[in-house]
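One record is set out below.
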Amino acid sequence: MNKEWILKTLPDEEQIKSLQSQLNIHEILCALLIQRGIDNINEARSFFRPELNSLHDPFLMKDMDKAVERLTQAIFDEEKILIYGDYDVDGTTSVALAYNFLKELSPNVFTYIPDRYTEGYGVSRKGIQWAIDHNINLFITLDCGIRAIENIRMAADHNIDVIVCDHHLPGDQLPPAVAILDPKQSDCTYPYDELSGCGIGYKLLEAFSIQNGIENHKLLDLLDLVAVSIASDIVPITGENRLLAWFGLKKLNNSPLPGFAALIDKAGMRTPLSISDVVFGIGPRINAAGRIGHAKTALDLLTQEVKEDAYVFAEKLNLENQERRNYDESITATALDMIQTDGQAEKCSTVLYKQDWHKGVIGIVASRCIEHYYKPTIIMTESNGKITGSARSVNGFDIYTALENCSEHLIQFGGHKYAAGLTMEPDQLDNFKNAFEESVSSLIEEKQKTPVIDIDLEIELEDIDFKMFGILKQMGPFGPQNMQPVFCSRNVFLKKEARVLKEKHLKLFISQAGTANNFDVIGFGLGHFHDKLDTPFDIVYTIEENHYMGQTTLQLMLKDIRV
């Protein structure tokens, strides 16, 4: 699949020189910093040396005073408190954060995570009924609730007070809660509105601690939960999120919660862990609980007080994650074959349905299909007599709008620009397929049909050394809006014959005219370039450390090649 390379605008030369004179580092690093909005020594100092006292006052968030007052009352009056969160990583880490903190203050703290298959996403009616049946006084939602108008009204009608902690966009109407913590509310003036659900929970507990004179370290000991939520929920790693992720990763690598320590051991992961390691190593294992079984397994893991006790849950998550991967691989293979045999390869969209596909992995399969056929994709299966699907989009294309145009064929749908869920009656399948293809073909622009690689800078191999990389590492943690720098180098050549590993990965050893620098290069999934590298070629890559037999070298992680 051809990819478009887009080189970011190089900052003004005078601006680069000015920052270089202040920091005394390579101009390449100065250009990268300026691209990230850092153009003076004070901003650089804050960026490279984050401090927790730079976090915003939690009481700046709308309704925080009300939420703290109600939570304080519940703790002191020994009321029953239910902590409710979703079945994904953000939801389970949020519930674990609040439970681990509040259980030290009250014996009446309970948790509830809905079942993906019988209750679905968000605050469920079954969850509210559980709270009613168990005489809950205070119901705290985490990572959900901002649009659960009717179900929260049901709680209020039974004299259950609700505090909503959410980071999703509110609708036109707000739920009847005693306090709503969501910085995306139009009248909330909190300075940062990109916190994860767990991040909102952290701010509530931070405010509660300030109000009640609780030592700061009790909450800081739980920061690895916040870091895992930030990484796994793919929120921007800027502002407060970067601060929380920076300190949370430090906690995860130095003294992780018992559950994380057990999971890292069982997964065979090597520290120090990066955001990427969390996204691809820890996150999928926690998510697997809700996809294959019930997310309570993940919550049980994250609330253990002794590492040895956590191993049984870590082992179960490992097994469920392997099962999830097996479903993922087999369904993806079938889906890719269907695209060819059903004649969908030539269409503007991909819509596939198979009655027995596992509902827990269809969103992952949709993303896998896009890696091969770059177009808006919906993967569907049967659930409770209905057809249910997960939609994923390509860069720049609003799949939610495309679904709106087909809403007459759907029972319900919801989501955002790049991902959505939908449900329909079985007899509407063909009508929906046709309508969705028509909708996509009328909306999609030509430039949205080709995957894009954003490149920070074009550099020479001569520029790469350990000093440069050492500073590059300190620009992390990397993630959305603070991505790992991507570089381009032109006219590189092979120093020895290229190899293909496991029939699909490319292994190179390269150099460039005018330099003694040579680098190992790994290109995952790029084995098809093997026979095309007999002339100088251009590469796009990131820089990584490689540890092998006690030696550390720099290697290039290939993203694309142009011959």
